[in-house]
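[Automated response] Your request has been received and processed.

Submitted sequence:
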Amino acid sequence: MEEVNKTASGEEPRKLNFLEEIIEEDLREGKYDSIMTRFPPEPNGYLHLGHAKSICLNFGLAQKYGGKTNLRYDDTNPVKEDVEYVDSIKEDIKWLGFQWDKELYASDYFDQLYEWAEKLINMGLAYVDDQDIDQIRQNRGTVDVPGTPSPYRDRSIEENLRLFREMRDGKYEDGAKVLRAKIDMAHPNPMFRDPILYRIKHVSHHRTGDKWCIYPMYDYTHGQCDSIEHITHSICTLEFDVHRPLYDWFIQTLGIFPSHQYEFARLNLTYTLMSKRKLLELVQKGLVSGWDDPRMPTLCGARRRGYTPQALRMFCDRIGVSKREQLIDLQLLEWCVRQDLNARSNRYMVVQDPLKVTITNWEKGKVEYFDCPLNPADPEGATRRVPFTGELYIERADFMEEPPKKFFRLRPGGEVRLKYTYIIKCEEVVKDEQGNITELRCTYDPSTAPGAGDWRSVKGTLHWVSVPDAVKVTLRNYDRLFTLSDMSQVPPGMDYKEFLNPDSLIVGEGWAEPALLEDKSALAVQFERTGYYVLDKDSTPESPVFNKTTSLKDSYKPE
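Generated structure:
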């Protein structure tokens, strides 16, 4: 019998994804009374859009099935970790609309992990190796060639315990020794070829200080932390598929709570990189303004660009969950942003390339105010007051002296409606000595005000601003950060930075109606006929700065 479920937006039924099928079967069979998931980021950078998918999945599944989700930091590498990242991760999760049950850290379990390491030594299943990392890597073998056992593999239990405790007590320098599991150097899965459990790092930890100078590896830490927290469904991205048998081996060997790992395909977006290392390089080399640069795929960058958490959750719901890697079109994300903003954002008029219009039959000094809807989707909702005078700006592209057929904007002798107000007619074109158009002289028809007299229709409607009231704003027009659609396909020998888009940021100016600066919605607004823009943190009352969120329309249609 086919099972269906509703999307997060409630739009249409869909089939259960494979994780939902697993969870429902586990609950139906009584394997668990309730489910427990976790989101386990390493605090070595800012979260990106790929993490948003994992967050929505882990928290969303727990919410759907009445379970809970822990936030657990994988803080086992103090060289790269920082409290700055810890705080930013919490902010991003809350911004997406989720709340964790417990805030935990792998470092909370360092004592327990150490005890289990000694247990493995006492079981004859772990040993101290004096080989350096390069030797260990070289002796691990290949898919077709078994590994070479370490010359220190057969040390006695007593010697291994002594050496491991001396490692803990700081007797040895970084890299002098490691603790390895003793499994099978000929195993077809290279993960089982005596993986490293602990390495020496004389580095202060952001939570434990200088208590430890040995730190556990991810593969040794992750499953045991899941087990301690009784995580029922440990959800990872697909690259950890090969790690799962080792995850299970540690749990079974130690005889602890049987958490289980499940893998899903990570998010890959066109024109986008999700590598923390490469994103850090862009920041460090000043190729972007910081982690929250609106061109960056980080959540703080998306937030600064004006993307909403509702749009990101809609996006994650639409791309679904699968075990097959796929490249998702960035246009789908932008479509979700427009869908959300179109329903909720306020509208304002902003002219970016101004052409002056003088209304010759307008009474000199007269100002008329129009109450215009903030959002046409809510005609009974709030309005903003827009001043209209005899001197206006329209977009230069909205006028042509010799227009092509089906050009329905302003032309010599032609008529258009100025949005929310009157119909005007172009009577004269004024040019400078070089032949550049500097001004249009027009007349207006006072009988064409909305709601007054007989309605007269024209094909063109233009946005505009009153020159005496126009507020100058700085506009940061953002585009894709890279020019290559699939950034995983950078040709050999080429640097990914060669595909940086030189036009990813174009700074311009605009002239806005004064109500724009009074907006308190804390949401990206729509510049009518142009796109969505959000007020940037660099703004001052004297110099407002707006970031382009996305264009107003696109031919893209989601499947």
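Summary generated for your ticket: Confidence is low (pLDDT under 50) at residues 1-5. DSSP finds twelve helices and 29 strands in the chain.
If you did not submit this request, please reply to this message.
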